[in-house]
Specification:
Layout lengths: L4 H8 L6 H10 L3 H5 L3 H7 L3 H11 L4 H10 L3 E4 L7 H4 L7 E6 L9 E5 L6 H16 L3 E4 L5 H11 L4 E4 L15 H9 L3 E4 L11 H11 L3 E4 L7 H11 L3 E4 L10 H8 L3 E2 L3 H8 L2 H11 L5 H8 L6 E2 H8 L3 H14 L2 E3 L4 E4 L2
Parallel strand pairs: 3-4, 3-7, 4-5, 5-6, 7-8, 8-9
Antiparallel strand pairs: 1-2, 2-6, 10-12, 11-12
Helix pairs in contact: 1-6, 8-9, 11-12
């Protein structure tokens, strides 16, 4: 972390300097240290309005950058600025990327190649509870990082499913990420579980920031901005999930929606998205297909099918999506029948292959 980092943090404590005004500052000044000592004239020259510049000068006199960095260290919080090389590349592409991110946990998750946003209703229906694991689990198991907002309902379930699948997950907050500020407080245990399992919690808001209502629409652009696509499980006619989806569309990212009952209020939003061109999703395969990422499919396959023995390696080499009879496997591998049979049984128990009946086997992707 550079010495200039403390000034990025200190400036972020002045809430009236958001992404747009921050951009004016880092485009005009070489360092944030220069901003911290800039005169009213210099601040105005950068593009700040006079009243904002005057307020900032008053505010910065009340802030000690060194103390603010100590607070972050005590909470084990890191920061990335938009000028840093490890700032998420895909997030930098959006219209108003955050100037800096506060981060807890595995910072590398922010630059994972395959990241999917999963959002939905806070008051999740039984249908939503059933469909979320069905779609999210196989993606999380096989290399997708699941990003959501730690909210009640769908968000929390998406994070939980990713954790249970031993996958990676990122929670984007509309509050500070210090222990006292995590919102909702009922999900603090889930937040800690995410961190304990190599996940990540991030926010563009400084520690101590309350979960103010207007923070969440802004938070949603980050959820969408970190992801290749956004999956909407359920959404009412006016909801945060729809805001995230519209952010994804504005960012030229894919949007996926789960159809539901015409009588369910939580399906009004998803049906509206489908009418507007979102991809109708019935399984995780639809997402892979629409993204058209052959390398994702290869990655998924390589992650799941890792042979542990020479016998498994030979069997995997001779299996695909078309059923192959055990006799053909014996012939192709030159292994004894008893060895093939026992290895096939173990591989099926591991979920690597499937017996389609009549001792015909396929490789599971």
């Amino acid at each position: 972390m550079s010495d200039d980092s403390k000034y990025w943090v200190a400036i972020s404590l002045f809430s009236k300097i958001g992404p747009a005004r921050y951009k004016k500052l880092y485009n005009h000044f070489k360092t944030m240290a220069e901003v911290w000592s800039a005169s009213l004239f210099e601040l105005k020259k950068s593009g700040l309005e006079e009243n904002i510049a005057q307020e900032f000068i008053i505010k910065r006199a009340e802030i000690n950058p060194e103390i603010e960095m100590d607070k972050l260290a005590q909470e084990d919080i890191q920061i990335i600025t938009i000028k840093d090389t490890n700032y998420p590349k895909i997030l930098k592409e959006i219209f108003t990327p955050p100037a800096l991110l506060y981060i807890k946990g595995n910072i590398d998750n922010l630059n994972q190649q395959f990241n999917l946003a999963v959002v939905g209703a806070r008051k999740i229906s039984n249908y939503g509870k059933q469909i979320t694991p069905q779609i999210v689990k196989p993606l999380a198991e096989n290399g997708f990082t699941i990003t959501s907002g730690l909210a009640l309902g769908t968000d929390a379930l998406a994070h939980q499913v990713a954790l249970e699948a031993k996958g990676k997950t990122i929670a984007v907050l509309g509050s500070g990420i210090d222990q006292k500020s995590i919102y909702p407080s009922s999900n603090r245990y889930l937040a800690q579980n995410i961190l304990d399992n190599d996940g990540t919690i991030i926010s563009e808001y400084p520690i101590g920031t309350l979960p103010l209502k207007h923070n969440f629409p802004a938070r949603n652009r980050i959820i969408a901005g970190l992801s290749l696509g956004t999956l909407v499980i359920e959404a009412a006619q006016s909801s945060g999930a729809l805001i995230t989806a519209y952010n994804a569309l504005e960012q030229n990212r894919e949007v996926f929606a789960i159809p539901g009952s015409l009588f369910n209020q939580n399906s009004i939003g998803t049906h509206k998205l489908i009418q507007k061109g979102a991809k109708l999703i019935t399984s995780h395969h639809d997402i892979l297909e629409e993204l058209n990422l052959q390398e994702v499919k290869n990655y998924v396959s390589n992650q799941k099918i890792l042979p542990e023995t020479l016998e498994e390696k030979l069997i995997i080499k001779n299996l695909g999506t078309e059923p192959v009879h055990i006799d053909q496997l014996i012939k192709n591998s030159n292994l004894p029948t008893s060895q093939i049979s026992s290895t096939l049984s173990l591989m099926e128990m591991k979920g690597l292959i499937k017996n389609m009946g009549g001792q015909n086997y396929i490789l599971l992707n």
